[in-house]
Design goal:
8 helices; single chain; 275 residues; Spore Coat Polysaccharide Biosynthesis Protein SpsA, Chain A; 21% strand; alpha/beta
Length: 275
């Protein structure tokens, strides 16, 4: 991995998650990776329920609060930029709603720290799921299948809220809309040629708060954003070629020819875990 500081930034985008975020923060392993400093960063997207105050009291190292709600895509974009500017050698994003296990953070970091991946998805569908309603499961299947067809490679969980990033992935990730991040982030990073790994995780549907996702509105906003991302050029990771999308202009007007692209994602099963 490209050297930064021996620092892992664990960031939590949050909107009105005061009932859950404190427990999530307290469960984050410190250190997140042996021998590395851990910084917990919370980006409060205009919450009105005291989310920022709860996060500080629970031990967040840095809390950034937007004066008004800007959207999850905007918030994650800002988190990626801030983690990079803080000098993170690696970063982890985890939802603040308590659905994803903070104890799995070292597991999703492991492929990056071993140099096997640049970008890691904590996969609910390779692990164990409790409490997810059938229509949300179908929606996840549908959006994940669509991404797999576009990318011409298999992924198992395109909407997971637990992800890890190498420093180069932090720097180069593009999120083209403010509403959400999940699908366009996958399309952007994998089109650039970043290596993907998936790690099985346990998932428990939220017991507090309320999800912002409503399928019709979600599809109406996300699908055009996916099209927009696919129409934009990508700069390939050095030594690799982009999977899909318009070529990036090169010297003397030469383009980049489409290439084979990266291999199928590596499935990394944590030692001593059954998924």
């Amino acid at each position: 991995m490209t050297p930064g500081r021996r620092l892992v930034v664990v960031f939590l985008p949050a909107y009105n998650e005061a009932a859950a975020i404190g427990q999530v923060i307290r469960r984050i392993p410190r250190p997140a990776w042996p021998g590395w400093e851990t910084l917990v960063l919370v980006l409060d997207d205009g919450s009105t329920d005291g989310t920022a105050q709860v996060a500080r009291a629970a031990g967040a190292d840095l809390v950034v609060r937007h004066p008004r709600n800007r959207g999850l895509g905007y918030t994650v974009r800002q988190a990626l930029r801030l983690a990079y500017r803080l000098g993170a050698g690696a970063a982890v994003m985890i939802d603040a709603d308590g659905e994803y296990p903070p104890e799995a953070i070292p597991d999703v970091l492991a492929p990056i720290m071993a140099g096997r991946a640049d970008y890691v998805l904590g996969s609910r569908f390779r692990g164990r799921i409790r409490g997810m309603r059938w229509y949300r499961r179908l929606g996840n299947y549908a959006f994940t299948l669509l991404q797999a067809l576009i990318l011409r490679r298999w992924i198992s969980d395109g909407q997971t809220g637990l992800r890890a990033f190498s420093r180069p992935a932090l720097r180069r990730c593009r999120i083209v809309h403010d509403y959400n991040y999940a699908q366009v982030m996958n399309l952007n990073l994998l089109r650039q040629g970043f290596r993907l790994a998936e790690v099985p995780i346990h998932y428990q549907f939220r017991s507090t708060g309320q999800s912002f996702v409503r399928f019709r509105d979600y599809a109406r906003r996300v699908l055009p954003a996916m099209v927009r991302e696919l129409r934009l050029p990508v700069e390939p990771v050095p030594g690799r070629l982009p999977r899909l999308g318009p070529p990036v202009s090169r010297a003397r007007g030469q383009g980049v020819a489409p290439g084979q692209g990266p291999a199928a994602p590596e499935l990394v099963r944590p030692a001593g875990r059954t998924g």
